[in-house]
Task: structure prediction
Amino acid sequence: MDLIKNEYNTILSRREQKQEGSYTCYLFEKGIDKILKKVGEECTEMVIAAKNNDKDETVYEITDLIYHTLVMMANQGITPEDVEKEIRKRAQKSGNLKKFHVVDKNT
Result:
């Protein structure tokens, strides 16, 4: 989790101290719609890579998804600690299998 927190802090510093040519700064300048578009794109690319059973590409796309998710989190005021707290809360639950409404017959 330290690596995630370090990346998050770098993202926050880019938001506070604009740097010419910074992709992170560009995303913040464009706003939430652009950030969410990138999160969606990276999520889709990760799914395709996993479906293609391409480990290296899947790892690459997971990394892109995490980065863009961290940018979204910073934009929305969500911290890694917020997420960690939720993960800890969920880890305490046992036997919490949910019954899902079947929509997609392929899953």
